[in-house]
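Supplementary Note 2. Why include the ligand at all?

Several targets in our set were suspected to adopt different conformations when bound, so apo predictions alone were not considered sufficient. For every target with a known small-molecule partner we therefore ran a joint prediction. The input for arginine is given below.
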Amino acid sequence: MSEMEKPSAGAAGNAMWGGRFDKAPHELVEAFNASVHFDQRLWPHDIEGSIAHARMLGAQGIISGEDALRIEGGLRQVRAEIEAGAFVWKRELEDVHMNIEHRLTDLIGPVGGRLHTGRSRNDQVALDMHLYARAEFGAVMGAAADLQAALVDMAEANMDVIIPGYTHMQRAQPVLLAHHMLAYFWMLERDKGRLADAMKRADVSPLGAGALAGTTFPVDREAVARQLGLSGLYENSMDAVSDRDYLIEGLAALSLVMVHVSRLAEELILWTSQEFSFVELDDAFTTGSSIMPQKKNPDVAELARGKAGRVFGHLQALLVTCKGLPLAYNKDLQEDKEGFFDAVDTVKLTLELFAAMLKTAKVRRDSVAAALHGDFSAATDMADYLVERGLPFRQAHEVVGRLVRYCLEKKQTLGDLSEPELKTFSELLDAAVLQRLSPSAVVGARTSRGGTAPAAVARQLEMARAML
Ligand code: ARG
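The joint prediction is reproduced in token form.
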């Protein structure tokens, strides 16, 4: 086709690939096939990638330098139109790539058709998704860091607050509230590590792979990658166009973020219940009931717990999409996008909300203090006391177990025991043990690294601050 000829929509109605067709796609096929309603969000990356590709084509003499400049100018104009909200996305043009290229040719004429030299939509879409994923992994890491900062602030503001610690959802040993909150700091720290790792695999350029086998043109793949700030290249063109590992890894990392936020959500739901009353959420992060006037519901936390399942679903969906695919590109891969986009949107919004919600949450110090009384969460400390006096731990455990049963029968706690009573259970016990049983003594005694003693938690807090 000479440059003077306009690309013809022909009978097929599609200027991008209509040449060999007699008929346009069935209306339902058009609806089924189109991705522009969701992949249009890739436009900044699509244009950035096309500019890098056009410059390389010019520099390599694959197209003239003048054409490369005209293409770049046209792409900038398309970008301006999209930014201004003036761009008209067309479903019949299928996807973001063809919408942009079509508009480019509208603007600069048939020379726009030279942009796609040595490139396929298969390596183009892969490039767009790599750039998108790399940027979004960074954005999620930032949102995770903001939630970490909120956790650290909450820990610091409540260093003197002791809450019951639970195992099996039964009172176990008291802990600092700060210690409890900082546990989530470390989970998010690992999440950021996983996202950074997925980002490394997103940080490679598939461009130059063509449809699957490479290209006949003397492209400079390194130059394109360099211009886009991508650190590496795929070494196999078939791998380059069919790889979605970096998205699956990303979805796995995002799923774990949601596991962690959902666990925190569950705690907040429990803690804001009347039964616990450890925390009160700000009105702005709760909702009321249309029938029960007294209600203040932790909907944000419940939705976060609910949305976790949705993100896990996207991971599962992409695993299943990829598992049976022969090499190389298959249209099934277009299904990678909606789930990934939704996962990114969901996780970012959830993290942002949790940071804001924690910043405004109030710890109900009175009810937390009241919750610490009348339980047996100092029992381990009584056993440890016997161990210090020479009794093997297993025997000490047995002695204190019998003491607990005795107290339960008498409807009292360990702290109510008299010295003569203690002596009937073990000669090694005396009244001094009673000093060890207050929540602050129990907490203060756990000075091991990573333990809940104020000094150990202060050290942890300092590390956390330094890491942020
Ligand atoms: N919209 C497609 C996708 O998201 C772009 C690549 C299509 N390639 C093709 N040969 N039909 O995967």
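The beta strands are 162-167, 170-176, 204-205, 232-233, 279-280, 362-363. Residues 30 and 92 are 7 Å apart (CA to CA). Comparable summaries for the other entries are listed in the accompanying table.
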